[in-house]
Amino acid sequence: MKRRKFITLLGGAAAAWPLAARAQQDRVRRIGVLMNLAANDPEGQAGVAAFVQALRQLGWTDGANARIDYRWSGGDEARVRGYAAELAALAPDAILTTGAVTLGPLQQVSRTVPIVFVNVTDPVGGGFVASLGRPGGNATGFTSIEYGMSGKWLELLKEIAPRVTRAAVIRDPTFASGIGQLGAIQSVAPSLGVEVSPIGVGVRDIGGVERAIAAFARSPNGGLIVTTNASAAVHRDLIIALAARHRLPAVYPYRYYVTGGGLISYGPVTVDQYRRAAGYVDRILKGEKPADLAVQAPTKYELVINLKTAKALGLDVPASVLARADEVIE
């Protein structure tokens, strides 16, 4: 090859490289969002809004260099499976999902599409990641609590309602997290003089929860603990109403239960997880792999008390509990 022709070819290739790189950079990225709540659920809307805002701050704008496809399952298992398959078929660059109830079906339909999850209690026990430090597959994200914290809910219940000697624990027995949280609560129950009774909650049998709570409330000195699970979150208005109807003091894992009329909550700031999830999605869009991004624990927790509900139950909230509260609803 003549020297002049070689230089011309080389110059053309060099000019093409930045064009190719720019085309890759300018490509519209597709992001899926699979929620376990209904589209009109204010908690779900707040989480998605925080996620989208954080993405925008990182340079990703829906309708410009990103396209976000939303699916809201409303806790319906068949809908979750269908939406998981729909999103995977779109071949998105990343999917944001919330809770084990949506993460499981997503991994069943794809082990290659990158997934960032929020509010999953035990991703290792659930088989979603190999380890917290090295997830090893196509999913990573943010846990909701560690099991030891579940015992604090019973401690709070006893502190705010000292007469409680019986506690019904509402949890999902089909997930490892439901078993683990119940075990942590049972481990501290003897030292507090409380007898623990598990109540299973599922999307398909919410009527069973009504009957179980009504039967539990027939005996005196009872209280409720609601653990982190998708079914309880979807049906939280009913559970809060049942606690009020049967005059049962109740402890919940998230603030939105208390703003909805529940007595007291202690748990992570859920909106913060969505903001942090945007950072992981950004890193994945820039070439990193979920397998190499460590699963992270919450960094912000909050104690929220509803004094109106306490008054309706005839409870005087101890000053020691009020002093620790991050928010008091009056």
Structural overview:
With 330 residues, this protein is of the alpha/beta class. It has two domains: 28-145 and 269-300, Response regulator (Rossmann fold), CATH 3.40.50.2300; 147-268 and 302-329, Response regulator (Rossmann fold), CATH 3.40.50. It has 13 helices and twelve strands. It has helices spanning 3-26, 42-57, 77-89, 100-109, 150-160, 176-192, 206-216, 230-234, 236-245, 255-259, 270-285, 307-312, 319-324; strands at residues 29-35, 66-72, 94-98, 115-120, 139-143, 166-171, 195-200, 222-226, 250-252, 264-268, 301-306, 327-329. The strands form two sheets. The protein has a seven-stranded mixed β-sheet with strand order 7-6-8-9-10-11-12, with helices on both faces. It has a five-stranded parallel β-sheet with strand order 2-1-3-4-5, with helices on both faces. Helix 2 crosses helix 11 (270-285).
Count of folded domains: 2
Strand content: 15-25%
Major β-sheet strand ordering: 7-6-8-9-10-11-12
Beta-strand segment tally: 12
Sheet having the most strands? 7 strands, mixed
Unreliable sequence segments: 5-11, 13-24
Helix content estimate? 40-55%
- The mean pLDDT is 90
CATH level 4 superfamily of the largest domain: Response regulator
CATH fold title of the largest domain: Rossmann fold
Compute the number of helices: 13
- N-to-C series of helices and strands: HEHEHEHEEHEHEHEHHEHEHEHHE
CA-based gyration radius: 24 Å
Q: Structural class of the helix and strand makeup?
A: alpha/beta
CATH architecture of the largest domain: 3-Layer(aba) Sandwich
Distance between the first and last residues' Cα: 84 Å
